[in-house]
Design brief:
Blueprint: H1 2-27, H2 38-48, H3 63-76, H4 79-105, H5 108-119, H6 122-127, H7 134-152, H8 159-169, H9 175-190, H10 195-220, H11 223-233, H12 248-280, H13 285-294, H14 296-314, H15 327-348, H16 354-374, H17 394-405, H18 410-430, E1 438-442, H19 454-460, E2 465-470, E3 482-488, E4 491-497, E5 500-503, E6 510-514, H20 520-528, E7 532-535, E8 541-546, E9 553-556, E10 559-562
Parallel strand pairs: 1-2, 1-6, 5-10
Antiparallel strand pairs: 2-3, 3-4, 6-8, 7-8, 9-10
């Protein structure tokens, strides 16, 4: 028995080491070279100047993430590298936690399968390669579930630690407190925690929240200002939820995304495995259903998945990264299903052992998911890059929706790196590396994650005057007003007015336009000042107009460009 215990401990050292190696080997070769999206640049700017009013980053502020990223940035001196380092490290930690949690819940075999399925999950893989916050969503969700499960099993040592982690998690992603609170509370109750200890746990939770919340509100100038900024940020949900005033079609799209991204997180392999499992166990499922629901482990998984999923389904979801809060739970469930299936298949095919079936199924999962993530799909259609989404139809519409909505893979990261690099180099060359003779006007971002946006321009070209122009044609701006964002030196101002003037100093001789050629804005620019086109090798175009050194007085929509 002593030898078995030593062997078990040795295995629990070897397997985590293998997990670390596998994650490192599958992540490091594919990491992104440039900031991936708008939010990535916002976090990068926050490392230099934490300012929620400037959306560096946007509310609720993610102050602990920014603080950790800033600390790491003292080592790397590059925001993108720092955030990707954190993404890789916390991918490793999440996979390790899934292993130990699944091992305690089920068995070592289920734990190995669950961790491998998570490591090779395309969505988890993708967000471990870019400058993003969503890996922290997965990490803290698993950590909270792990500590809470310890409490559920009656280990009172973890009561206050689970409360501390739940509270601190809000400083990384506020929704973690909201989504994981029901699971934590259930585990306290089922673990027969006394009311006195529950009360003390709530005090620990509140104190942990205040540790990051007080510095956050102080940085914005007080609670009133912080709540105002948060309310402005939450306006986005009024465009997605019918409960908050959105149209029925918008609600259908939002709910459809929540379902599609959740299924995509489960993967094709996972969907097939669950269907096969249901086929094997379809008989008597009604009699088993109620006992399953009464099982505390089943309730734990329901409380892990349901709060977040229902919120995304009904209220708001904008990125597949959101589902990383319950993606590890899906992978643990899938690990259990695959392990059970290996025994079911052995009954059908007794000459093949359950272990052989399990290894075969796991290899299939690794191969299929690796192909989905690594294979360079060429669904990127350069000819419709500038076409507004509501004007794309037929097969082009199908390919666009697959590329933009589902294929979160390495090819998408490569496209972003290429496009960002092309824009930076082209604009630098156009201006002869002189920021004083060129302004950048960003108008339309039809592929925000793979294109070039205002935030990336602010970060990578800080000495240039960068303008982001919004009106009723390209945004939700109404009331006969237009909006101008003006950025330079990593800060910006916003102007809202019926007409906005954009001043050109005497040294400005060129305007670089990031816009699409099918907009009214483009037509007005072309007719008034002329447009020259630089065709990039991936189907994108960069436009520019030479305005010389003489007088300039252009009115394009609600925007006046004047010397």
């Amino acid at each position: 028995m002593l030898n078995n215990l030593k062997t078990s401990k040795r295995i629990d050292i070897i397997i985590p080491l293998l997990i670390i190696v596998i994650v490192a080997l599958t992540r490091i070769p594919f990491v992104s070279k440039f900031l991936y999206e708008w939010d990535s640049a916002s976090y990068a700017l926050a490392f230099q100047n934490f300012n929620i009013a400037q959306e560096q980053p946007h509310p609720p502020g993610y102050i602990l993430f920014v603080g950790l990223g800033k600390a790491v940035n003292y080592v790397f001196h590059d925001a993108n590298t720092s955030m990707i380092f954190l993404s890789v490290v916390f991918s490793i930690l999440t996979a390790l936690l899934v292993y130990f949690l699944a091992k305690e819940m089920f068995s070592r075999r289920v734990a190995i399968v669950s961790s491998i399925l998570l490591i090779f999950n395309p969505l988890f893989w993708f967000y471990g390669e870019i400058a993003s916050i969503y890996i922290f969503e997965a990490f803290f969700a698993v950590l909270i579930a792990y500590l809470s499960y310890k409490v559920l099993k009656g280990d009172g040592r973890f009561i206050y630690l689970s409360a501390l982690v739940l509270g601190l998690a809000g400083g990384f992603r506020l929704d973690l407190v909201e989504f994981m609170f029901p699971l934590w509370l259930f585990c306290l109750w089922f673990g027969k925690t006394s009311y006195f200890r529950i009360g003390k746990a709530f005090i620990v939770l509140i104190m942990a929240i205040l540790l990051w919340f007080i510095p956050t509100i102080l940085s914005t100038g007080g609670l009133g200002q912080y709540l105002k900024l948060s309310a402005e940020q939450s306006v986005a949900s009024t465009y997605t939820s019918i409960l908050l005033g959105a149209s029925l079609s918008a609600q259908v799209i939002n709910s459809g995304l929540a379902i599609v991204w959740s299924l995509w997180g489960l993967t094709f392999f996972g969907i097939i495995m669950i269907l096969l499992y249901l086929i094997y166990h379809h008989s008597g499922w009604r009699s088993k259903f109620v006992p399953y629901l009464k099982n505390p482990l089943s309730i734990l998984f329901i409380l892990w998945i349901a709060p977040a999923f229902l919120f995304y389904l009904i209220i708001y979801v904008i990125k597949p990264g959101y589902i990383l809060v319950y993606l590890p739970a899906l992978m643990i469930i899938l690990g259990y299903v695959v392990n059970r299936l290996s025994h079911d298949l052995n009954i059908t095919f007794p000459k093949i052992s359950p272990r052989s079936f399990l290894v075969s199924l796991l290899l299939i999962a690794i191969i299929v998911n690796s192909i989905i993530y690594v294979y360079p799909y060429n669904l990127h259609q350069g000819e419709i890059w500038e076409t507004p989404q509501d004007q794309i139809h037929g097969s082009e519409k199908i390919f666009f929706e697959i590329n933009a909505g589902i294929l979160y893979n390495n090819q998408k990261i490569k496209a972003n790196d290429q496009n960002t690099n092309l824009h930076i180099n082209t604009i630098t060359n156009l201006s002869s590396s002189n920021p004083n003779n060129t302004i950048i006007v960003i108008r339309d971002i039809t592929r925000e994650d793979e294109g070039f946006n205002f935030r990336k321009a602010m970060y990578y070209l800080p000495e240039y005057n960068v303008y982001y122009l919004l009106d009723s044609e390209n945004s939700h701006v109404t009331n006969n007003t237009v909006t101008e964002w003006h950025g330079q030196y990593h800060s910006y101002t916003i102007t809202n007015a019926p007409v906005v003037t954009i001043p050109l100093n005497q040294s400005v001789q060129r305007i670089v336009w990031i816009m699409n050629d099918q907009s009214n804005f483009y037509q007005q620019v072309q007719s008034q000042v002329g447009v020259q086109t630089i065709k990039l090798p991936n189907g994108l175009n960069i436009y520019y107009s030479d305005v010389g050194s003489g007088p300039v007085n252009l009115q394009i929509g609600g925007f006046i460009f004047t010397r």
